[in-house]
Amino acid sequence: MAKKDNAEETIVDVQEVYTKTELFIDRNRKGLAMGIGAAILVVLAIIGYKYLIVQPTENEANEASWKAEQYFEIDSLDLALEGDGLYLGFLDIVEQHDGTKAAMRAHYNMGIIYRDRGDFESAIEHFQQANFNDDVMSILATGNIGDCHVEMGNVAEGLTFLTKAVNKAKGSNGAAFTAPIYMYKAAVANMELGNKEAAKGLFEDITEKYPTAQQSNDAKKYLAMLKAELS
């Protein structure tokens, strides 16, 4: 009988909970409906913003920038920067399509152009505007800022950005490609600053973790030299 009583009590408890839930929904159905409706409106607003505003804006920017990117690829750099009178160059794209992915690509490409022309300050400004959120371009932009500072003689500042590039690269999907590049650059910068232990550690990481990387052979040579100096 005790078991039966417990079972009956359990059934009663479940029924009471169900009834209370029904009562809560019934008494608050207006507020709940408004809450659900508001949530639906938020979702629809996000979807609408993405497909009615963001996507058309990105499409327009891509359409405007394809020719400049083509000029960049074939090394017609003045046309890539300034346009040809019919199509926009990167200078106009970053102004007229600010905030788009096409504008970020334009900033990055302009950084490359100015870097190769020796205008490192302008290059840094554009690399800083290339705010990519990915596993490759964001690392390359950060690393290029470091390279430009080193080229300007600001080795310590350059090392700061090269180290950031290393840290980003290590946690990325493209670590095997990007990490040894910037580890090597950071190691060389450390050597220039007299930080031999730090340089040694980076060269060791390259040879141990990325033995097939292009930088591995040179890293081995520097590592042997540093070990001899520090022994």
Q: Could you walk me through the main structural features you see in this protein, from its secondary elements to its overall organization?
A:
- The chain has helices spanning 2-27, 29-73, 77-82, 90-96, 101-116, 120-129, 137-151, 155-170, 175-192, 196-209, 216-230.
- The longest helix has 45 residues, at 29-73.
- The model is unreliable at 1-18 (pLDDT under 50).
- By secondary structure, the chain is mainly alpha-helical.
- The protein is elongated, with a radius of gyration of 29 Å.
- It has a domain at 134-231: Serine Threonine Protein Phosphatase 5, Tetratricopeptide repeat (Alpha Horseshoe).
- It is built from 11 helices and no strands.
- The protein is 81% helix and 0% strand.
Spans of at least 5 consecutive residues whose pLDDT stays below 50 are 1-18
Structural class by secondary-structure content: mainly alpha
| SS field, number of helical segments | 11
Largest sheet: none
The CATH superfamily name of the domain at 134-231 is Tetratricopeptide repeat domain
Mean pLDDT: 83
Bulk shape: elongated
Beta-strand residue percentage? under 5%
Compute the gyration radius: what is it?
A: 29 Å
Under the CATH scheme, which architecture of the domain at 134-231 would be assigned?
A: Alpha Horseshoe
Tell me the series of helices and strands, N- to C-terminal: HHHHHHHHHHH
Which fold does the CATH topology of the domain at 134-231 refer to? Serine Threonine Protein Phosphatase 5, Tetratricopeptide repeat
